[in-house]
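Components:
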Amino acid sequence: SAVISQKPSRDICQRGTSLTIQCQVDSQVTMMFWYRQQPGQSLTLIATANQGSEATYESGFVIDKFPISRPNLTFSTLTVSNMSPEDSSIYLCSVGQHTEAFFGQGTRLTVV
Amino acid sequence: QQQVKQSPQSLIVQKGGISIINCAYENTAFDYFPWYQQFPGKGPALLIAIRPDVSEKKEGRFTISFNKSAKQFSLHIMDSQPGDSATYFCAARPASNTGKLIFGQGTTLQVKP
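Structure:
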């Protein structure tokens, strides 16, 4: 299975600021995904990070709020922009490998 | 709308007992149904998965039962142990996408010693 590293593992940020989360995979993967897990809730897909093209966003998520980069087949970043307390969540990077999906340990974000 | 409904929300089982978590889906275009286990502070870990052409899959103490006609699938944990205490998520993958997953709401399992 793919090994996925996310940085930072947690952060406390002031409202109105932005945070960039990094996701590094130990092998080349075609598909990378970003999920959000609000406190005590399930996982919701934010977007699919496509290498060499713009990310594909799910309904309710927009590029201005969650810009994503995918410069190569092993790395992606998610930025949470102009944060508010409602953005306090765990953000998870996921990769699709063969038929399975694997997750990083997540970034726990608290916005104060 | 693509949805996966999971129940119960929480479950308490005695050590050695059987834990059963159920999921139902509404979209017949799903082609892959994984279960994930998540411990506090950790990302979800793939536990076991099944495809719709199979009615049952067993891996150790974990079994998935799949009922295609009823659009339901369930996770059975046999001989439940305190170390199984975690949150479990079912998920479904749209056939048109190789990685995107639709998750159920999650079940918090507590196994009492």
